[in-house]
Every structure is written in structure tokens, then in C-alpha cells.
Amino acid sequence: MRISARNQIKGAVVDVKKGATTSHVRVDIGGGQVVTSSITNEAVDDLGIKAGDKVIVVIKASDVMIGVD
Amino acid sequence: MRISARNQIKGAVVDVKKGATTSHVRVDIGGGQVVTSSITNEAVDDLGIKAGDKVIVVIKASDVMIGVD
Amino acid sequence: MRISARNQIKGAVVDVKKGATTSHVRVDIGGGQVVTSSITNEAVDDLGIKAGDKVIVVIKASDVMIGVD
Amino acid sequence: MRISARNQIKGAVVDVKKGATTSHVRVDIGGGQVVTSSITNEAVDDLGIKAGDKVIVVIKASDVMIGVD
Amino acid sequence: MRISARNQIKGAVVDVKKGATTSHVRVDIGGGQVVTSSITNEAVDDLGIKAGDKVIVVIKASDVMIGVD
Amino acid sequence: MRISARNQIKGAVVDVKKGATTSHVRVDIGGGQVVTSSITNEAVDDLGIKAGDKVIVVIKASDVMIGVD
User: Fold this and answer.
1) Out of C8, C9, C67, whose CB is closest to D8?
2) Taking the domains of chain D in order of start, what are their residue ranges?
3) For C9-35, what is each residue's pLDDT tens digit?
4) DSSP secondary-structure letter at C21?
5) Which of A41, A63, C2, D26 is deepest in the core (most CB within 10 A)?
6) Residue D8, C-beta contacts closer than 8 angstroms, at least 6 positions apart
């Protein structure tokens, strides 16, 4: 499937922390940047996401803000 | 201000495309990656965002999905 | 690509209304239900979305609310 | 209350899984489709959501993506 | 309809600015605070939202961030 | 950092409820209004958020809906 979300960044899973219903997946996207994703435990199990996996971080453009120092 | 959003990635504005009410801001975050942000025209004007500016892309962890090829 | 978003519903595009930067895509998911999606014009062009196309409506679980009459 | 969210789909609660702070509510919207919603435990308690209840799945248009196979 | 979204704040519409597909609605919630909402033109028309109307600002808890100065 | 999010409302933390991975932070924004925020435990720890703290509630305009009674 190709998806409309404008932001699709390749990376590697650093770790997966499972909670009661919600997991946090951290993905190294290179350049010293780690992105944190909060998804359901079911999604983690369904896709079989685990440390070391090659994945794609997907973010809809309307969920991206801009900050200025 | 420091903010709870887990994902804060430094980059440089590539371009700003203004619509009637909504702007699209593209930010080069390095490594050949460009992130697209959809924000209000008011935000662009208020922060004075323009091509070349150093900015920070800010994304809440609950808005990040994971894809697997 | 397979994606972590829990909600992936097949449907057919009813129409695409393009604005200055943002498009509204309406998708018939069957059972008399039409879902409206607000995405960037770039996404519409990139995926070549047009009326009649078979598509998949994708929604992250954390973006779904529950109402009670 | 009537709400601006464009997507309001009737269904019946399949099950509610409560976590430490976050619940997952699965709703059968007909046609073999089940939608998963991630909401606070407080919302589940406040609305008294339980299996079998008739509910309405509510999704803002800007949270809907389009996928193409 | 009652809705699971935890944040429902009463206010009065200050103004509505319609774009090509997206409107910005500003709502005075009292205490000198004005909240900006970005919704579809269709939602504005469907609910008949106009300056002076009593409305309720609705925000899902997972869309609220915390900042610290 | 200044941020593009249009809604930034000052308040005081009422309480923080930590779950396994996700925390709920309730913030009194005055006028009898309490806003609930769902963020990661890591964000709570990183910013040191606790009851009584002066904070700023931050919400992107595209995440705000309008209800009408």
C-alpha cells in the first residue's frame, strides 16, 4: 500500500516498550535522530515490530508543527 | 518554552507555500529527508517562517505511525 | 508497505475537491457510509487519486472518538 | 451536541479493553468492518461504554489518510 | 450526542474565515483566551457556524501537549 | 522555542496520573475549566511535570473541533 501521508522516513527500531494497551517504539532515522511513536500493542504484535527491524516512520503533514528558537 | 512533544528535529526551511488559509512548509532535516508541515497562514506570519530559516520540526509521539515493507 | 494504523477500510472515491493547498476526498466505504478525508493536494497528485478509484481509508486508533446518543 | 467532525459512523461496541490509563474500544460498523478507538479510561467510565452498546464512531476529516494498493 | 473527547469548553464564535476548502473559526472561551479551530468549510456550513454563536470547543486528550517556560 | 500551534493557554497542573506508558495530566486553565492532556511518561519525567506547576496547554488548530448544542 502507498499512503497519502507526506512524511515517510526510513529507520531502524531501537527499542519497543510495551504498556498495558499502548506501546512506545523508538526509531533511529539517522543523523543522530531518534523518533518516538506511540501505537497500540496490537499494532506491534500484528506487524511483529522488534528492535533492529527496518521500518518506516509515517506522519501526516497536518500533525507536524514548526518551532523557532 | 519546552514542550512535551517527544519529537523535535532541527532543520532548515526549503519553501513555504501559502494557500487561502493553510500553508505547507517543507523542512530539510538532513540526510536527504524533507518533512512537510501543514499549518495555518497565521502561524507562518506570526513566526515569520521563510525559506532558509533554521527551525525545529515538532511532532507528538501519538501522531507517529510505523510502516513495514 | 503495511502500516500500524489499526483502521484500514476499503472503499471507492466519490469525488475529490481541490483547494489552494488542501484537498477533500470523499470515499464510499459501503453500507451507505461516506468518509471525508482532508489531505494535501500533493498527496492527491502523487497517488493520482480520482473519482472511482479503489482506495483504503486509513485512520490511527488514537484519532477515533466514541459518541453516545 | 452536534459536532463539526465530518465522519460519524453508527456501530455497536464489540469489546472494551482497559489499560492503566488508556482503553481500546472496538466498534462493529457493519459490512464486516471493526473500528478500533483509543480513548481515556475516564471517557469509557463517563459514557459508560460497554460491549453491545450502540455508539457512534467520530473522526475528524484531517485525521483520515488515503491508501492505494 | 455525548462524546468521549475529554475537553469540551464553552465559548462564543469571534469570527469565521473561510478558505478554499478549510475554515478557521476563532472562539472566545473567556478569561481573555481565544481558541482557533481549523475545520472543513462543509462543517461550517452544516452547523451554520457564524460570529456570535454559542459553541463548544472539543479537543481529544491525546491532542493536548504541555509546555513549560 | 516558539511554536506554530495556535492555541497556547496558561494554567496550573491539577494532577498527574501515570499509567504503564501513558500519563494523563489535568491542567486548570481558569474560569472553572480543566483540560486533560494525554502524553508519554517520558515527557512527564523529562519536563518534571507535577501538581501545582505553572504550564502551558498547547493544541494545534487542526485538532480543535466545534460543537453546537
Assistant:
1) C67
2) 1-50
3) 999 999 999 999 999 999 999 998 999
4) S
5) A63
6) C67, D56, D57, D58, E1
Task: List, for chain B, all residue ranges whose pLDDT scores fall below the cut of 50.
Answer: none
Q: Which residue of A has its CA nearest to B16?
A: A66
Q: What is the CATH number of domain D1-50?
A: 2.40.50.100
Residue D50 pLDDT: 98
ipTM value greater than 0.95: yes
DSSP of chain D, one letter per residue? -EES-SEEEEEEEEEEEE-SSEEEEEEEEETTEEEEEEEEHHHHHHHT--TT-EEEEEE-GGG-EEEE-
Q: How many residues does chain A have?
A: 69
Q: Cβ contact (<8 Å) for A20 and D20? A: yes
Class of domain A7-60: mainly beta
A-proximal residues of C, 1-60, CB under 8 Å = 1-6, 37-40, 42-44, 46-47, 49, 56, 58, 60
Query: What was the pLDDT predicted at C7?
Result: 98
Report the candidate in E1, C36, E6 with the shortest Cα–Cα distance to residue D56.
E1
Architecture category of domain E7-59 in CATH:
Beta Barrel (2.40)
Q: Which residues of E53-62 are buried (b: 16+ CB within 10 A; e: fewer)?
A: bebbbbbbbb
Binding partners of A (≥3 Cβ pairs within 8 A): B, C, D, F
